[in-house]
Amino acid sequence: MWIGFQKLDAKLCEPSADEYRLCRFVSMADLLNNCVTIIGKVVIGEGDDDHATKLMRVKNIFGTLTIQNTQLKNFSFFDQLSMIVHLEDSDPVIKILGNKNLTYPKIGSISAIHTRFNKTAIIQDNHPKIFNWTNGTCELFGNSPYKMDLLVTYRRMLDYVGEDCGARVDLLSSFDPRMMTFISLIALLWFLV
Protein backbone atom coordinates (compact mmCIF):
# COMPACT_ATOMS: atom_id res chain seq x y z
CA MET A 1 0.00 0.00 0.00
CA TRP A 2 1.45 3.39 -1.03
CA ILE A 3 0.31 6.53 0.72
CA GLY A 4 1.68 9.92 -0.28
CA PHE A 5 1.34 13.34 1.30
CA GLN A 6 2.09 16.83 0.03
CA LYS A 7 1.25 18.56 3.30
CA LEU A 8 0.75 16.42 6.38
CA ASP A 9 -1.51 18.41 8.68
CA ALA A 10 -3.93 15.88 10.06
CA LYS A 11 -5.25 14.17 13.15
CA LEU A 12 -6.68 10.71 13.65
CA CYS A 13 -10.36 10.24 14.36
CA GLU A 14 -11.77 7.48 16.53
CA PRO A 15 -11.96 4.25 14.54
CA SER A 16 -15.49 3.12 13.79
CA ALA A 17 -14.95 -0.36 12.36
CA ASP A 18 -12.50 -3.18 12.90
CA GLU A 19 -12.58 -4.60 9.38
CA TYR A 20 -8.93 -3.60 9.05
CA ARG A 21 -8.06 -5.02 12.49
CA LEU A 22 -7.58 -1.55 13.89
CA CYS A 23 -6.32 -1.48 17.49
CA ARG A 24 -5.68 1.35 19.90
CA PHE A 25 -2.48 0.76 21.87
CA VAL A 26 -2.76 0.73 25.65
CA SER A 27 -0.13 -1.84 26.62
CA MET A 28 1.49 -4.93 25.18
CA ALA A 29 -0.40 -7.09 27.68
CA ASP A 30 -3.76 -5.64 26.53
CA LEU A 31 -2.99 -5.68 22.80
CA LEU A 32 -4.97 -8.13 20.67
CA ASN A 33 -3.16 -10.82 18.65
CA ASN A 34 -4.61 -9.91 15.25
CA CYS A 35 -3.95 -6.17 14.88
CA VAL A 36 -2.99 -4.96 11.42
CA THR A 37 -3.02 -1.25 12.22
CA ILE A 38 -2.19 0.21 15.62
CA ILE A 39 -3.00 3.73 16.75
CA GLY A 40 -0.99 5.18 19.63
CA LYS A 41 2.43 5.21 21.21
CA VAL A 42 3.55 1.59 20.90
CA VAL A 43 5.82 0.74 23.83
CA ILE A 44 7.57 -2.60 24.17
CA GLY A 45 9.14 -2.40 27.60
CA GLU A 46 10.70 -4.52 30.28
CA GLY A 47 8.74 -7.74 30.69
CA ASP A 48 6.94 -7.40 27.33
CA ASP A 49 9.23 -9.81 25.44
CA ASP A 50 6.64 -12.62 25.51
CA HIS A 51 3.97 -10.30 24.08
CA ALA A 52 6.08 -9.21 21.09
CA THR A 53 4.61 -11.96 18.90
CA LYS A 54 1.30 -10.06 19.02
CA LEU A 55 2.91 -7.62 16.56
CA MET A 56 3.52 -10.20 13.83
CA ARG A 57 0.56 -9.05 11.68
CA VAL A 58 1.03 -5.32 12.20
CA LYS A 59 1.53 -3.41 8.94
CA ASN A 60 0.89 0.17 10.05
CA ILE A 61 1.55 2.21 13.17
CA PHE A 62 -0.10 5.60 13.54
CA GLY A 63 1.99 6.93 16.41
CA THR A 64 5.47 6.26 17.75
CA LEU A 65 7.49 3.14 18.48
CA THR A 66 9.55 2.68 21.65
CA ILE A 67 11.46 -0.50 22.45
CA GLN A 68 13.12 -0.12 25.83
CA ASN A 69 14.83 -2.33 28.43
CA THR A 70 13.86 -5.64 26.82
CA GLN A 71 15.78 -8.90 26.47
CA LEU A 72 15.01 -9.03 22.73
CA LYS A 73 17.83 -10.06 20.37
CA ASN A 74 16.01 -8.95 17.20
CA PHE A 75 12.75 -7.52 15.90
CA SER A 76 11.67 -10.50 13.78
CA PHE A 77 8.08 -10.01 15.00
CA PHE A 78 7.94 -6.80 12.90
CA ASP A 79 8.34 -8.67 9.62
CA GLN A 80 5.11 -7.19 8.19
CA LEU A 81 5.53 -3.59 9.40
CA SER A 82 5.56 -1.35 6.33
CA MET A 83 4.58 2.15 7.48
CA ILE A 84 4.76 4.47 10.47
CA VAL A 85 2.77 7.72 10.48
CA HIS A 86 3.71 10.09 13.30
CA LEU A 87 1.38 13.10 13.60
CA GLU A 88 2.76 14.65 16.81
CA ASP A 89 6.19 16.25 16.71
CA SER A 90 6.75 16.21 20.46
CA ASP A 91 8.38 12.76 20.49
CA PRO A 92 10.92 11.00 18.28
CA VAL A 93 9.22 8.60 15.88
CA ILE A 94 11.38 5.66 17.09
CA LYS A 95 13.25 5.09 20.37
CA ILE A 96 15.38 1.98 20.92
CA LEU A 97 16.89 2.22 24.40
CA GLY A 98 18.59 -0.10 26.87
CA ASN A 99 18.14 -3.40 25.02
CA LYS A 100 21.36 -5.10 26.13
CA ASN A 101 20.86 -8.28 24.02
CA LEU A 102 19.79 -6.53 20.80
CA THR A 103 22.20 -7.35 17.96
CA TYR A 104 19.87 -7.28 14.94
CA PRO A 105 17.49 -4.28 15.07
CA LYS A 106 16.05 -4.59 11.54
CA ILE A 107 12.43 -3.42 11.50
CA GLY A 108 10.08 -5.02 8.97
CA SER A 109 9.62 -4.07 5.36
CA ILE A 110 9.28 -0.35 5.99
CA SER A 111 8.38 1.51 2.81
CA ALA A 112 7.63 4.89 4.42
CA ILE A 113 7.75 6.94 7.58
CA HIS A 114 5.48 9.97 7.40
CA THR A 115 5.77 12.81 9.91
CA ARG A 116 5.01 16.50 10.03
CA PHE A 117 8.54 17.44 10.98
CA ASN A 118 10.34 15.20 13.50
CA LYS A 119 11.96 12.18 11.80
CA THR A 120 14.24 11.37 14.71
CA ALA A 121 15.21 7.91 15.96
CA ILE A 122 17.04 7.77 19.29
CA ILE A 123 19.18 4.65 19.65
CA GLN A 124 21.35 4.27 22.74
CA ASP A 125 22.41 2.01 25.62
CA ASN A 126 21.88 -1.15 23.56
CA HIS A 127 24.23 -4.08 22.84
CA PRO A 128 27.68 -2.74 21.80
CA LYS A 129 27.49 -4.67 18.51
CA ILE A 130 23.96 -3.53 17.62
CA PHE A 131 25.00 -2.33 14.14
CA ASN A 132 27.49 -5.04 13.18
CA TRP A 133 24.95 -6.26 10.59
CA THR A 134 25.33 -2.90 8.77
CA ASN A 135 29.09 -2.54 9.27
CA GLY A 136 28.55 0.06 11.98
CA THR A 137 26.06 2.25 10.09
CA CYS A 138 22.96 3.31 12.01
CA GLU A 139 20.22 1.70 9.92
CA LEU A 140 17.00 -0.02 11.00
CA PHE A 141 15.49 -1.05 7.68
CA GLY A 142 18.15 -2.79 5.56
CA ASN A 143 18.06 -2.82 1.78
CA SER A 144 14.82 -1.89 0.12
CA PRO A 145 12.79 -4.75 -1.36
CA TYR A 146 11.04 -2.28 -3.67
CA LYS A 147 11.85 -1.38 -7.26
CA MET A 148 11.87 2.37 -6.63
CA ASP A 149 14.78 2.17 -4.18
CA LEU A 150 15.66 5.89 -4.12
CA LEU A 151 12.08 6.93 -3.38
CA VAL A 152 11.71 4.31 -0.65
CA THR A 153 15.08 5.24 0.83
CA TYR A 154 13.96 8.87 1.01
CA ARG A 155 10.53 8.04 2.46
CA ARG A 156 11.98 6.00 5.31
CA MET A 157 14.99 8.20 6.03
CA LEU A 158 15.50 9.04 9.70
CA ASP A 159 17.76 11.34 11.69
CA TYR A 160 19.59 8.81 13.84
CA VAL A 161 20.83 10.17 17.18
CA GLY A 162 21.88 8.64 20.48
CA GLU A 163 25.07 7.09 21.77
CA ASP A 164 24.80 4.01 19.52
CA CYS A 165 24.79 6.36 16.51
CA GLY A 166 27.05 9.18 17.71
CA ALA A 167 26.62 11.64 20.57
CA ARG A 168 24.64 10.61 23.63
CA VAL A 169 21.16 12.16 23.99
CA ASP A 170 19.97 13.42 27.38
CA LEU A 171 16.60 11.70 27.66
CA LEU A 172 15.61 13.56 30.82
CA SER A 173 15.25 16.85 29.01
CA SER A 174 12.41 17.38 26.59
CA PHE A 175 13.48 16.64 23.02
CA ASP A 176 12.02 19.04 20.52
CA PRO A 177 14.03 19.69 17.34
CA ARG A 178 12.04 22.87 16.68
CA MET A 179 13.27 24.29 20.00
CA MET A 180 16.88 23.53 19.02
CA THR A 181 16.30 25.34 15.70
CA PHE A 182 14.82 28.30 17.58
CA ILE A 183 17.74 28.41 20.04
CA SER A 184 20.23 28.21 17.17
CA LEU A 185 18.49 31.09 15.39
CA ILE A 186 18.51 33.24 18.54
CA ALA A 187 22.22 32.47 19.07
CA LEU A 188 22.99 33.41 15.46
CA LEU A 189 21.05 36.67 15.73
CA TRP A 190 22.79 37.50 19.00
CA PHE A 191 26.16 36.81 17.38
CA LEU A 192 25.34 39.02 14.37
CA VAL A 193 24.14 41.95 16.51
TrEMBL record:
InterPro entries: Rcpt_L-dom, Rcpt_L-dom_sf, SPS2_domain. Residues 34-127 form the Receptor L-domain domain. Gene3D superfamilies: Receptor L-domain. This is Recep_L_domain domain-containing protein. It comes from Caenorhabditis tropicalis.
